[in-house]
Amino acid sequence: MDNFYREINQPDDQIDLAKAALYIAEEEYPDLETDEYLNALDVMADEVEERLPAERYPLRIIQSLNQYLYDDLGYIGNTDDYYDPRNSFLNEVMDRRIGIPITLSLIYLEVARRLDFPMVGINMPGHFLIRPNFEEAGIFVDAFNRGEILFEQDCEARLAQIYGHPVRRQPSFTASVSSRQLLARMLRNLKLIYLNRSDLPKAQAAVERLLLLFPDAPTELRDRGLIYYQLGYWSKAVQDLDLYLAMLPNAEDAPAIRRLLEQLSRGT
Question: Which of 81, 94, 115, 221 is surrounded by the fewest CB atoms within 10 Å?
């Protein structure tokens, strides 16, 4: 966790996303060779660089990236086992060349950055996208679907596909995210996967990193408190849950949290 903390404990625009993502993976793979994967990203960018046309229009760069990542290297979205935790670890995604939208987007972002073609993450509900980082870009890239190029109306159609009914697009759906927000989405994915598997220690590890990114995030304090409770660390649970209620006294789940705290105060 020390490596992760050092990387994120600096201005957001100076955070190296690939390093931070690999430091997340160190929790699962303590012998992970971070430099090996960073060097691999450098090599990938060099190979794309050799393919770029003299006129570097954005669409041509995207086409070159798509051909290299999806046709040549064979990266693919994992539609068969979406909730496999390996899909959320950058080293596994690079080794297996299969992942989920946010980790495939991260690889795309990191290779593009090395080409001096800055792109940003788009925190669309249910499906992470990326886009070129310049004003009025007007296009989005779906790294999960072989770098498919989308326009604003396509994003609305994608939302309807995800949710099974029409969804009116809101400006926040296609707003860019900070480095911390991108890393937080990765960690929330892991937290939910581990909670669904009842793997509380690993879920706790994900929440601890989320709280390094956003120390005052009330829902993460609540979730850590509930994990502490289930693990039997009752005094720590009380501390987190009390703080959650102080921050959000009228939260929808506040009555249930208060009942739990009453039980803990009686030692039951």
Answer: 81
The answer to whether 179 and 21 are in contact (CB under 8 A) is no
Tokens standing for residue 87 = 């899909």
129 contacts: CB under 8 Å, gap ≥ 6 = 101, 105, 121, 122, 140, 141, 142, 143, 150, 155, 174
Q: What angle do CA 35, 4, 132 make, to 5 degrees?
A: 75
Bridge partners of 130, per DSSP, are 121, 141
Residue 268: the pLDDT is 56
Please write down the long-range contacts of 170-173, taking CB distance under 8 Å and 24 or more positions apart. Answer: 173/123, 173/124, 173/125
CATH 3.10.620 fits 2-174, yes or no: yes
pLDDT tens column, 91-141: 999 999 999 999 999 999 999 999 999 999 998 888 899 999 986 778 999
Say which amino acid occupies 142. D
Give CA–CA dist 240/220, Å, rounded: 9
* Contacts with 120 (C-beta within 8 Å, 6 or more apart), sequence order: 109, 130, 131, 133, 176, 177
**pLDDT digits 0-9 by tens, 138-181:** 899 999 999 999 988 887 787 778 778 877 777 778 889 999 99
Question: What sections of 172-217 are H helices per DSSP?
Answer: 179-196, 200-213
Domain ranges of the chain: 2-174, 216-265
What global pTM score does this model have?
A: 0.93
